[in-house]
Write a structure and sequence with these properties.
single chain; binds magnesium ion; binds adenosine-5'-diphosphate; alpha+beta; 16 helices
Amino acid sequence: MRASQFFISTLKEAPSDAEIVSHTLMLRAGFIRKVAAGIYSYLPMGLRVIRKVEQIVREEMDRAGALELSMPLVQPAELWQETERWETMGPEMLRFKDRHERDFALQPTSEEVVTDIARQELRSYRQLPKNFYQIQTKFRDERRPRFGIMRGREFTMKDAYSFDRDVAAAGRSYEAMYAAYGRIFDRLGLTYRAVAADTGAIGGDRSHEFQVIADTGEDALVYCPDSDYAANIELAEALPLLASRAAPARALQKTPTPGKATCPDVAELLGVPLATTVKSLVLATDDVDAAGKPAGVTIWLLLVRGDHGLNEVKAGKVAGLKGGFRFATEGEILAHFGCKPGYLGPIGLKQPVRIVADRTVANMADFVCGANEADFHYTGANWGRDLPEPELVADLRNVVEGDPSPDGRGVLAIQRGIEVGHVFYLGTKYSKAMNATFLDEDGKPKHFEMGCYGIGVTRIVGAAIEQNHDARGIIWPDALAPFRVVVCPVGWGKSEAVRGEALKLHERLLAAGVEAILDDRDERPGVMFADWELIGVPHRVVLGERGLKEGVAEYQGRRDEAATKVPLGELAAFVTARVQLQ
Ligand SMILES: Nc1ncnc2c1ncn2[C@@H]1O[C@H](COP(=O)(O)OP(=O)(O)O)[C@@H](O)[C@H]1O
Ligand SMILES: [Mg+2]
């Protein structure tokens, strides 16, 4: 490829709405252009990278025995109504009507369509297992599209769906995908971690996210450096930090804490450790009667230690909160606690409130909590003496660094990650809802055991940049680079010798199967180098008249401190050896 015939459109500055480095660099390097919020065009340079990701994903899915197909972007409401997801999906699913007033949606995912294919096409156990996948456009009307194509509304996903005879076979399909994902992210050259993830209503322990490690990631990953424990913080179990409850040593005392409405402020004022304070969070559930009619509101008080944070996913697993909860309104709080937020606590409640204590809080003695009176807290509070034992005790909090690992083999550490892939055992949720069955060996119809497996193809491009860049631009892992080598002639327009050597090297690299681009734009060296460093091509060769007189060219890897002089006769072989071909 010649640069003059390609499309290079670099920018000195990125538009101001770019929040993170990958977004900025993709805009500046001319990879993407915004069309609307969360909706982008992929320019030729960016599309080359996306195609690299797709190709690796495709090769490894094929190697794992999955079969590529393509399902429609526009999907009829009827299929989504069968699983009730037409109602439950919410505004993320973009819906519209065709000219006949029929309802359709843009696919945010494709369980319904693929299950429909399975129930029509897979009739016998002899056809199983099957794993169908597509690499396709998805649309999710995200509340907050951001970070460029990292959290877009329109994006490319590889989504795969497995169909099996029974739970054991579904487990094997899951393991095969888990292994394929490992190969994919290894080949992409990314630093990643597979973490256990929440399974929501499906339950079980077969859900893992593949997370690219990056400080800007939206997810917190919990892992144990001394064992193989790794989980998303949403799921990571927090063990009680106190093995048992000490006997009360202090009297309950109402203490003035004027204007101190947070645990850290109260602890500071009282001169006590933050870990002796208890934080009150008030939730509400909107109850319904047997006929589904509204039947009042239940108020919940969740208690976590002052230095801990509430984990809403865990709260959603508490009996009574499973059906969904919300934070209580200020009016509801006043009505039940007789006090505004900031001074709330579990002692002396006049109205019924259901109290759930975190495991650690349940073992605390002589703690500090709000007194349900503005500008006052209790000190020396004790369960059983000053207030009833907690009605419920549950794991409610996020783990923090240094917590004991749930596997008992060390302490936990936390790092941030970008979710680039997800493997999920679905069981018979969709096959039952859509009555998708096959005839088993005993001649009886059975529901398919299913799994689904996503990879965010376009998100990977952003995640790779978050992990691989410097002040000058992107540094592509070889496998993702739009071009692996750039040949930069200095004085293209002036020097026939330079032109001749550059053309020769370009030809030789292409003949060796190395994707090389020849910069024949006749730009000044500074402009030329800045462009390629921004674009992130991992290998560069500079040819100039002075070097040619010495019989050498200069090779520099994108991460190298300095250039290496290479004799012209060895140049093509030297560069080819530097490039990781795969
Ligand atoms: N808005 C988005 N923009 C880009 N990629 C996305 C987006 N939402 C999801 N993905 C990618 O698709 C993969 C599979 O999606 P899924 O697990 O269904 O998404 P989520 O975890 O957001 O529910 C995710 O691991 C992620 O890499
Ligand atoms: Mg996910």
